[in-house]
Fold:
Amino acid sequence: MKLANYLSGKWQDGAGDGQWLLDPVTGEKLVSVSADGLDLGAALAFARTQGSAGLQALSYGQRAELLGKLVDVLMANRAAYADISLRNSGATEGDVAFDVDGAIFTLKYFAKAGKALGDGKFLVDGGRIPLAKDNLFAGQHLMVPLSGVAIFINAFNFPAWGLWEKAAPALLSGVPVLIKPATPTAWLTQRMVADVVAAGILPEGALSVVCGSARDLLDHVEEGDVVSFTGSADTARTIRTHPAVVRGGVRINVEADSVNSAILGTDAQPGSAEFDLLVKEVVREMTVKTGQKCTAIRRVFAPAAVARPLAEAIAARLAKMTVGNPRNGEVRVGPVVSKSQQQAALDGLAKLASASEIVFGGQEGFVPVDADAAAACFVKPTLLFCDKGLAAKYVHDVEVFGPVATVLPYADVDDVIAMARRGKGSLVASVFSGDAVFCQKLIPAIADMHGRIMVVDAAVGGNHTGHGNVMPSCMHGGPGRAGGGEELGGLRALGLYHRRLAVQAAPGRLDALSEGGVSAAALNA
Structure:
């Protein structure tokens, strides 16, 4: 079966046999995808006219109601999504919950939060600004929805959440969406779009999907469009410098590479709450989605005196994680999504191992449960230890996109600050410490190089949301090598899909122009 593409308000088949999507456990061919021969320029033009007009005829509150209806559609089809995730991604039930349920939760959040914007169709930002004596002339900032298309070029690891965490604020803003999912796992994204299209909830042209190669998609972007990309820094550079992007001043949002870290405070000792909580979190981040998360922990910093005991405790917990075919109820860790991803992970692991010590794991002698290792795409969870600090080769630079992490000892707070910053920009760091002085020195010193910092102590316990769990109410993104983008953060996410402008006129004219708007202060509610 070849998956159809939904463009220009109709389902269309790409030419040729297409590229096959495979089961990463069995190697079975599942479905194929092709975008060859499709008119992507016409698809974007249709979305700009039909999709934009249909969405922007509605208020924020009405669009929020549509999001609520999308939630109902996705919840009704969850079993089908779980089956696709198992077959196409090798997802365990926990992985399905992280991706599919996370997508539904995020969409539900924006459906509820968007109601606060009520009947407005644009945002009135701040108060009136006097520009002349006697208040005869004044200025007012407005935020108006963009007139173009939100184009999402997404990564393979979150085919459900990656779609809806971007689409929810775009649709709520009144901006139509065209999604180009990563080919290896495009089936789930396409199925979700198909279910929404069949339900007839959104205006025609509001949601499109193209599966397979992006081909000449970027050749057709224009001013007013937004391109949101999740993937490698190399591809991000290509997108940013594309002639059509540069010519049109097209807005770009990027989430790229990230060598995230977890930091154990100088106060933590084996057996302390913070020590045990960090061990649990590192193992969770290595094994959920088989470590295929942009936010996963890659480096674990610990005081030199406890670094070895920490590595041993993590290894002991990893030894209890059964790796193999997710169809077996005892399995807790599945495969990576493809042979190419497996090879990339093993190549990265080989670099790390050349400059570090393997404490647990490695591929030698590894036999997955209920699977043929030669046909399948497994990478055994592997923990390394490196005591070279800032001088360590590869550890601070190579992101192995799989179940791999490295423990690094540090001498003092200045030492760990330098190593955390050596990541050159990360999505997230987590700090496990009950020492207020340590945290007060560490956190401000690394803040500018991170998009999010999570602090856990004994008082928090296990009630935190998780190092790698992206909450829709909090900002997601990171500086430097992490891409410099910003997503989510509550209703502030709508800012990516609005243009802020200053209107200067007589106060009476400003009053008339502001009718139909809603205060932008609601974005911070």
Observations:
- The longest strand covers residues 122-130.
